Known about the structure:
alpha/beta, Urease, subunit C, domain 1, TIM Barrel, 12 helices, about 20% strand, binds zinc ion
Amino acid sequence: MTARLLISDATVVDGTGGPPRPGESVLVEGNRIAAVGPGVTAPEGAPVERIDAAGQTLMPGLIDCHCHISFGEARTQEEQDLYTGVESRTLRSAFNLGKVLRAGVTGFSAPGGSYYIGVALRDAVAAGMLRGPRLTTAGRFITTSNGIADFYPTSVGVPEGSIGTVANTIDEMRAEVRVQIKNGVDFIKIGDTATGEWTAFRRDEIAAITEMAHQLGRSVTIHARGSEAVDFAVSAGVDWIMHGDRMADDVIERLAASGIPLCPTLTLIANLYEWGHLVGVPQHKKDAYQRLLFDCAAPALTKAREAGVAFMAGSDSGFSVTPYGEWHARELELLMTYAGLSSLEAIRAATANGARALGLDQEVGTVQAGRIADLLLVDGDPVADIGVLQDRDRLTVIADGEVQSFDDLDPALRWPYDRNQVIAAGEITQDLVNR
Ligand SMILES: [Zn+2]
């Protein structure tokens, strides 16, 4: 028999950016929304689970378009790339899915990570073997020797466990795209430079990667903090762009005209700048992230919003400064603070717009009859106070039509860190010992 769920008398925020609709009810049948509206009830005589949602807001479940599920909350790049074997990383990632779901995230996109862990998680969730948000995933970032994932001296190279892989010619890039798609990725992640002060790729290289992926029926995204990288990506016709911090005015105009969505991903840099000192981030790094946020990202994103660029929301969860299940919803608040979005626009970025990165923009991301019932019931009014979405105690998560319980999930549980081979934090000089 089809399971039925009736959520009555909620204020519906449907994810499209339209105004809140008080006094509506939503009937879920199986994993789909059967009806939405003021007079919706359950059919007579049929068993139905009922939620009286008076005073609560019903909205689509959050979609985090930037969640690195395989990164494991690493504190250093070496922890991410060298330590923890693939089997342990996979188990750790599987556990962390529950934390992400508990934070109201019913779908996420993993723009790169180690091995094909994302592919395995995606398939296990889809098969009902693992509980977690539905997800799409890239494989290792494709980068050049000048880009984000070639961190170590050439004598070390890029280890197998790295989050990225180096391709320095168009032929190598095409070959990597072929292999990754053969191994089941949903999209290709191009990794330009870490901070965007120069560009690691040539225009024709980004075009070649994109063309190859599209020919094989897959999407492409790019980590592009620099203006030129965004420009190249727009020319190539990538499917969505990450960051865009340093975009020049003419590039913003080209991005807006292209209709390609932008996922700014402010949470990582805002957490570093605001709270980095609490976890040992050096002052010069904190200052650099502050400048990137205030001098580059905020003005560029504000102009992008005014130019009509479509935003997605992504948190860059997966680092120790952005642990799983903690900050996904903070991105909405930051999009309002630094890019000037309204709360309804921020919600749309994190729901309807995000569905594009799941390849499900006709299936999830809005509260509409016929859609999959990935929903969030909020004890409060996120349109008036977006911060309420960060209070996990006020969220009821409905994923694939089922009300989720997290009684069995210990939110404090974390995988033990595989530390670097650090022997000391400083130098034992004569000055030091005689001081
Ligand atoms: Zn990222």
